[in-house]
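Hi there. Long-time user, first ticket. I'm pasting a complex I've been working with (about 1475 residues overall). I'd like to know whether the download I got is complete or cut off, because the file seemed smaller than I expected. Thanks.
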Amino acid sequence: MNYDILVVGSGIGGMESALKLGDMGYKVLLVEKEPSVGGKMILLSKVFPTLDCASCISTPKMAAAAHHPNVKAMVYSEVQQIQKQKNGKFKVKVRQKPTFVNPSLCTGCRQCEMSCNVAVPDEYNFDLVARRAAFIAFPQAVPKKAVIERQGSSPCSFTCPAGIKAHGYVALVRSGKYKEAFDLIMETTPLAGSLGRACYAPCEGECTRGGLEGPLPIRKLKRFVADQYYQEHAETEYKQLPASTGKKVAVVGSGPAGLTAAFHLAQSGHQVKIFEAAPAPGGMLRLAIPAYRLPKEVVDRDIKNLTALGVEIETGVRVENPAELKEKGFDAVFIATGTQSTREMRVEGENLDGVIMSLDFLRAVNLGDKTSLQGKTVMVVGGGNVAMDSARVAVRLGAKKVFVQYRRSRAEMPAHRWEIEAAEKEGVEFQYLCAPQKFIGKKGKLTAVESIKMELGPPDAGGRRKPVPVAGSEQTVPVDLVITAVGLSPQTESLQGRLELNKNGTINVNPETLQTSVPHLFAGGDVVTGPSMIVNAVAQGRRAAFFIDRYLKGESLAGVAFDGRLPVVDKEQVLQRQQGYRTLAPVENNEPLQRGVNDFSEVEPPLSEEEARYSAGRCLDCGVCSECHQCVSVCPANAIDMEMRAVEEEVEVGSVIVSTGFRLFPAQLKTQYGYGQFKNVITGMQMDRLLAPTRPYNTVLRPHDGKVPDSVAYILCTGSRDQSVDNPLCSRVCCMYSVKQNQLIMGALPLADVTVYYIDVRAFGKGYEEFYQQARAMGANFVKGRVAGIEEKEDGNLILTYEDIDNGGTVARAEHDLVVLSVGLLPNTEVFNLFSGVELAADEYFYVKEVDEDINPGKTSIDGVFVAGTASGAKDIPDSILHAGAAAAQAAAYVERTRIGT
Amino acid sequence: MSNKKIGVYICHCGGNISDYVDVEKVREAVAGEPGVEVAKTAMFTCSDATQQEMLEDIREKNLDGLVVASCSPKLHLFTFRGVAKRAGLNPYQYTQVNVREQCSWTHTDDPAGATEKAIRLIRAGIARTNLTEPLEPIVVNTVPAVLVVGAGIAGLRAAVGLADLGLSVWLVEKAASPGGWVAGFGKMYPYDRSGSDLISQLTAEVKKRNNITLFTNAELVEKSGSIGDFNVVIRVNGGEEIKANVGAVIVAAGFDAYQPGDGEYGYGTDGVLTLPEFKALVDSSDGRLMYQGREVKDVVYIYCVGSRQPEGEDRTYCSRYCCNAAVHAALTALEKDPGLHQFHLFRDIRTYGKFELLYNQSREMGVRYLKFDENEPPVVEKDAAGKVKVTVKDLLTYSEEVEIRADLVVLVTGMVPRENSGLTDVLKLPVGRDGFFNEIHPKLRPVETVVDGVFICGTCQGPKNSAESVASALAAVTQSASILKKGYVELEPLIAAVNPELCQWCGECAQSCPYTAIGKEQYQGREVAAVNRAVCKGCGGCAPVCPRNAIDLKGYTDAQVRSMIDAFLKETG
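Hi, the file is complete. Here it is re-exported in full:
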């Protein structure tokens, strides 16, 4: 699609140009980066000197811009590049940012906004109040369509292998919406309770708060959410069970991968049956992880989330040939048998009675065989988490001494730090750089272990330094029980020749779809990846379910994106965005760890509701939108589309008008006025919001304590006519907007005094001088003199030190309870980045340069590119409108000229 | 009662209305009025969302009448007509009721009264709507030509701009040559380009375009017709009359410089000049400034002469350009003589925007600024040595009284409205309190006047510098083209209609018409009054004077007005 004229920016100038050109019959593309047209004027209260309501002037133009038959208004879009062509026209790249709300469905009802759980400073109220991540910019927005602000994935959610929306459930806990938080976790996995206890929580490792006082307890919050739900619901309640598809799926293995896959397949309406070899379902959750970390009732309760959907589980059945299940009526099979074997050490004496493999040991204990180890010395070999579990279980079974031998140093130990520390606290001893060489026994029964010291040699293929035995350092100690925990491997011997296997015995699958060499067989979890974390298995189960569902529906598996996530946000930027985050210390982890603990009750105490809310409240909302999906559920129009992505398009235009507006002077740069520090020092723009019909509060009040002010001071020329901030220019509008606000304040608060500290009052336009005199007649007090500094009193009032020129030039002090800084305008320099090839020239103060203002106002250094409004210098609204009219006339003339030429 | 289905929408206008008018109470009070099918309130009826809601209501409920109770029709009449149109409802079956300017804003001290008044006004609006009938706008084909009055810098630039968009231009200049004030200027601020150069450049551009016809020594003497199709008469050299047909008129008639009264700050005595006189002196000197054969060493400028006068005087306005011009004149004078001493006596220095740089530069170059209190203006006297003595209390040095002996005193005079009564009469243009031509609205319609199709630009609208005049001239070009490029305009059908059955042609109506829109025609063998639909403005002046009640005003028929009065008078309970 091509256009005659591109207008960049839809403030009052841009709209004026676009509408007039549209009226002339030209096709206009109007690009606006905000979600609404209207620019800054729509945010004002009333406008000088006529005191028209800014909305009343703007809204008809905004509506016209959106509805004009010759104007296409693209909001929430950015021009990326403008390049002039040889034919005098311009190639333009425009990027439509994703709003995550389908605009053709959205009705502007604000349900999403009201259900949103993330609050961020409201830039449309100049940060006086907060808005939600799902929002409509302001009540008069055109188009009135919601936008969801997603700056990217939050690091916690992004890093979760399973794709659990960690930020989402944290935000929901913060809002006290525990049931909703549970439902959100259930969108990904049925194992909320188990993961809430036994997940290694990579999310916490990425938490931005981790760089400050420590990460949020994201895992424990999940446990809190699950506990809350399970306390109230002995059985899982589903509003509606899915309609049956008539397809049957078998899942082999009931570990986290199998359970998660079965859950999602059942949600999709398939009939699912799980086959489990062990006497009880749960896989590693049940068999490997000790009950003090993961009580088995929790696993049972998690599994009820599936069975409530109609998933059948048959235990004690070993499926030797999954392919044959097809003959039993299963349309697809998911193999998730995990890694059920402990690797052999290949050390002499490994078959002695008294040498046991960790998984066998843990499985026996978990299934109820709590044979006492009273008085025994137990040695655990290995440095992983399974080794820690084994050691800590041995402690609980009453062993006299439990020690761990690990062949590398502590720094290399793969077990988690907190697991090692907990084991130490429970009395487990550690021998590093040491490994058994020989298990010694009598009559087939273990009596002692011969170990050898190791030292770290050069790095091996995996990059870890390889331990090398130190000759002559052998040592023999008496041991009653050795538990070997040197790695896990899958049991896939029976699949040999039926499926393609890898060298290490894992099943070879398409990594994207998890489909095996046999089309109706899919495999995932540890049996594919090798030993890993629960949450990785969950991820695999979810992925498998997605592709099995497609397979069952006869849909293509290739080239389909699964679990699309936005790029992760930059933590530095998140921290910079915080206007001053409070230090919020993490809740202390008070695990009652003690030496020689002898029961299997859960070690980790739960978070109290207060602790949970407080902890969730520490969240920095890194990605802004938390993906809590509340908007998705409440939207009556089903308009929320979290998969929406940016769309770029390229168009050709005949001419360009840049009306990119201005930037407000950042008041904090005038440090002596204390903006940002003193709560009752605000900017003129903030005062305009306080006075606007869509004001954030229902009256003018000072932000510090909500007091209605009775003495308001204005400091003119804040950041203008001021070499100390490198801006010698006059901003043209501040005198007059201040005078306007004076009149409005005197109307709204008849008892308030208004004092204006000024250098010159520049009331130069038509009707302005009269407007200024009117403010004086109404009682506004104009004091000539520059304010040198402000001090804050305890009650929030402010003491101004100023030069009182009218009274002999003495230095005087005055107290006010609200100070308004009449901040000026600065150039918006982003406009210069839009052009490639030829540079758009700037004037010496970085406004767009007008190369021939005397005769062609608005003409820029690039023939065919014109500037309208404040992009070329500070202007008030009437001057911006006239200037925009001038730009339009010349852009039209350029189009006519080049049209004849081509 | 009524066979109409009317939708009534009452606006909060943020809090502009609802702070004083109880809009919910109003809604309840009017919801049961005859014909009302829907009665709703809205935060902003003009917002896109509410417009959408109205659109849906009109379509779904098959409404054939619309009443919006919000602000003045000046603001949103076209907005809601647009809504009606988009919904497929005839726009003339909509009535705007102004409950903001007429209720909430006027009765801030009496919310109950404001509410009751709103109820009555809306009931009247509903009554009127019940009797509306669909009307179609009067379509006038536009003439792709524009008459530009005044060939100063604004008029010249407008002519070139119009021609570049394919419109023919008749450019009429009263003086013997084009160029206006700027043609006589030397260096101008802030780019230091000479005014005469700018004008030669523009007149060359004018000559290049054969769709511009320039008349000098010419004036506009007659205008008839209406927007899109005016007939004008141009008198050249005081004799020959040329007739032209144009679609629009742009007035760029310029300004006059303020001429101080005799004795005002010593004006009239030697050594006291106005700013334009001083500029001419500077422009014409080759080296050092000479005045009456003497070298000028000390110059005093007195600001705001004839401007910013107290309430009640003629010129209360600020003349906008003069601070910049005086500062720039000081810089130009320094180029001629770097040793010149210059003292500026000002009230507020209004070197707005980038012109602040000129002010800074002048101070850096040694130009001195003294601020006087408006109640204690400087005093200018002739001293014994023939110099001019200026006495002033300088607020910037603790109100110290300063005496300056000057070779020249420059009275920084502003712009005043040009004496244009002939033009004003021909075009029927309104002037504002300041005497300059008045735009309809400084932001919504800055170059339009109440006379449709007649636009204003440049300094005849108010003081401006040259570049600002050019910008407004181009804005007027844009406004003209936005009407004329379309090829037609639609005029209001709310005009007088004669019932030829009743009319017996007495001529009373034609006498009363301020627009000469009523003539005679034959109807069934007799003479009756006939309204020129393109010329009638719908003022209604003819309707009451007709002795036979043969004239009605469409959209405001006698029946409608009567029903409105009845509705006003109904008890509000």
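A couple of notes from our side: The two ends of chain A are 18 Å apart (CA to CA). The first strand of chain A starts at residue 2 and ends at 8.
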